[in-house]
Amino acid sequence: MANATKTVKSSGGDYTSLNAALAGQAANLTTNCAGTGGAGILTIECYSMSDTTAANTGTGYTTSASYYINITVPTAERHDGKWNTAKYRINYSSEGGDALTIAANYTRVTGIQASQNGTYKTRRAIRSSNCVGVILDSCIGRIAGTNGAESNAFLLSSSTTYSYKVVNCIAINPLNIGFSFGEGASPTATVYNCTAISCATYGFYGYSGRALLKNCVAHSCGTSDFNSGMGATGSTNNASEDGSAPNTNEVSLNGIDLTDIFVDAANGDYHLVVDSPLINVGADLHSDTYAANTSLASSLDIDGETRSGTWDIGADEYVSEEPEPEVVASSIFRGSIMNSFIVR
């Protein structure tokens, strides 16, 4: 296998924008990955910077389930489970359009922050239409700017069933919809452990049965947290404030303030607080068929922390930060050694 890795850095890398890397490496990955003359996985690593160019895979790639585009952010360069201006991010500020467009089949995107900061009513942070084999893992999609009444943080649509996997992702959209799913497939996407808070209309939106949702949470959305009927058969362990979470084992957040659920929801920090009602009420998905090839298969959350025991709902898994035991040893008295171990 002739795998290849290209870097995106403000200086000293192979490219200075993700879009330039995608355009420069467009090829048939099943026969000639990055000019190697062999089939391989094309990995594009994005390093800490504000990438102000909209990125688009374009349609110049030939890919497969084995030979795919792998857009990723190394752990040290990646957000820490909330929007982080010190880490890699796509900051696109044109009037309209999309910050990241996925138009190539079998594209995996991990750890990307994408924000559309314009002024036009129809904008998307991350968009993909009529593709198959697309995975979005531990990404944050944000709509900023003004006048985004028809905007979507994530917009995914396809006429093919199970085209998209969306796991450990966060949607930020105070102007319209967090996650939106469309076209004719039922379901279009599997959506696991995702979070959409305080969206102007819907946290999660889709036509009848368009998404299989598990361990997802929405709260304080203007019209409804989840729109009626969007959950495909098998959707379970979702949480909402208004009773709209689809299908079985709904977790009600009715009457529970955001401050009792998240660290700082007002400023986009959706890490769970101790005693959050989202703790230990999710389904263990690491063996779920549709979690394969994602971080959930290794029981990891958006921060790369391990989900253990009964999983939590949403992108974050609460991990207690208990201090390490302090050990004091080997006191010497009059030539003899008395080993006294004090654990506090």
Integer-rounded radius of gyration: 22 Å
Q: Treating each run of at least 4 consecutive H or I residues as one helix, how many helices? A: 1
Q: Give the fraction of residues assigned to helices.
A: under 10%
Fraction of residues in β-strands = 25-35%
Q: How far apart, in Å, are the first and last alpha carbons?
A: 53 Å
Strand order across the biggest sheet?
1-2-5-8-11-14-17-20
The tally of beta strands, per DSSP, is: 30
Largest sheet: 8 strands, parallel
Please, what is the average pLDDT? 93
Helix/strand-derived class?
A: mainly beta
Low-confidence stretches: 327-344
**Shape estimate:** globular
Q: Could you please describe the fold and organization of this structure?
A:
With 344 residues, this protein is mainly beta. Helix content is 2%, strand content 33%. It is built from one helix and 30 strands. The protein has one helix spanning 18-24; strands spanning 4-8, 42-46, 50-51, 55-56, 69-72, 89-92, 97-102, 107-110, 113-116, 123-129, 134-137, 140-143, 152-157, 164-167, 170-172, 177-182, 189-192, 195-197, 202-206, 211-214, 217-219, 224-226, 239-240, 251-252, 262-264, 269-272, 327-328, 331-333, 336-338, 342-343. The strands form seven sheets. An eight-stranded parallel beta sheet has the order 1-2-5-8-11-14-17-20, covered by helices on one side. It has a seven-stranded parallel beta sheet with strand order 3-6-9-12-15-18-21, with no helix packed on it.
Keywords:
single chain; 344 residues; mainly beta; 8-stranded parallel beta sheet; 7-stranded parallel beta sheet; 2% helix; globular; disordered C terminus
